[in-house]
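REVIEWER CHECKLIST
Item 1: Sequence provided? yes
Item 2: Single chain? yes
Item 3: Sequence as submitted:
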Amino acid sequence: MVVNVRTLAGSEESRNWQVLYLPRVLEASGVTTADRFPQLSSPTHETLVPGRYVMWARDPATNQVSERTVVKVGEGRGELTLDLALPAAAR
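Item 4: Structure as written out by the authors:
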C-alpha cells in the first residue's frame, strides 16, 4: 500500500524532513532502528505492507524530531495520505 506523507509546520508544508517509520510491534519490543522513506519531504511516499507503524519526521540538519504517531496501514484502502505535524520550533 502506498503511504503519502506531508510534513507540516502549522498549516504550511515544510520541506527537507526525513520521514522515519518502525513497525509498532518492533517498537514495543524495544527495537530502535527505524527505516526511512526514500526521499525527503514534503511530500514523500513509500510502499508499506499492511500493519501498524510508528512514524515521525527528523530534520537532518538539526536532528530535531517530531512526535511519534501511530498509523494503521491497510484496512482495505489502496493508498493512505498522512500529515505529520512538526515541532513548534520548526515553524
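Item 5: Key structural point noted by reviewer: The longest helix spans residues 24-28.
Item 6: Recommendation: ____
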